[in-house]
Amino acid sequence: MLRNSFARGPEGWCSYDYHASIVAGRNVFILATWEKEGGVDNSGYVWVDHTRWSADTPEKPLSILPLLLYRSWVNADPIDLRDAEVSVYLRGDNLQLDGAQCFFWIHGVGGRWHYTSHPLSVSDAGWSSAPLRFSLQNDEQLWHHSWPRDPNTSRSLECILGQVLSYGFSFVGFSSEVSGRLCMGEFEIKLPEG
């Protein structure tokens, strides 16, 4: 089991500012703000807002990556997430999606895949009574390969799911950039037994 309880800090979770990355000439990741209390059952949680993210224009379609974690940031190796179960609480504070849907995504050598068959509900201005739960099925019809789509560098979902370097949440399908705040509490990944 992988767990982020946010009891002592943001535990490596960041947002991605693609536009700042273009200006800086390197990737710009902005650490999520940690709150010691106010989360699920008054636990810790993290939040990011629109001042820390921008549309990742190489992605097709355009994506915003408001919450992400690279495993190397927490001294962890790539992980096999085939058939893993994810549980998370997501809350929006004045979150204006402008038509966007929220998805879980995975990234590894050869691309990023968004779990588009399972859009996630972001509760509004309060934590939901139960976490969002979903299983990461190894079926390309349930996912969208957003980057890279070059056949010379792309890898199958099976390859990426078997060696995940990073994962997080995306906004896809907006007509103007999403604004407001996205909060996350009690993130867990349960790996299959075996």
Structure description:
The chain has 194 residues and is mainly beta. It has a single domain (2-190), classed as Sandwich (Jelly Rolls), CATH 2.60.120.260. The protein contains 2 helices and 15 strands. It has helices at 18-24, 157-162, and strands spanning 2-4, 14-16, 29-31, 33-35, 45-49, 55-56, 63-70, 85-96, 101-108, 111-114, 123-124, 132-135, 144-147, 166-172, 179-190. The strands form 3 sheets. Strands 1, 4, 5, 8, 11, 12 and 15 form a 7-stranded mixed β-sheet that branches. The chain has a 6-stranded antiparallel β-sheet with strand order 6-7-14-9-10-13. Strand 9 (101-108) and strand 10 form a beta hairpin. The chain starts with a strand and ends with a strand. The model has no long low-confidence stretch (mean pLDDT 95).
The CATH topology, please? Jelly Rolls
Radius of gyration over all CA atoms, rounded:
16 Å
Distance between the first and last residues' Cα: 13 Å
CA-based shape:
globular
CATH superfamily: Galactose-binding domain-like
CATH C-level class: Mainly Beta
Mean pLDDT, to the nearest integer, reads 95
- The stretches of 5 or more residues where confidence is low (pLDDT under 50) are none
How many separate structural domains?
A: 1
Query: What share of the residues lie within helices?
Result: under 10%
Which class best fits the helix and strand makeup?
Answer: mainly beta
Task: Provide the CATH architecture.
Answer: Sandwich
**Tell me about the biggest sheet?**
7 strands, mixed
Beta-strand residue fraction:
35-45%
| Number of helical segments with 4 or more residues | 2
- Element pattern in H and E: EEHEEEEEEEEEEEHEE
The count of β-strands is: 15
Oligomer: single chain
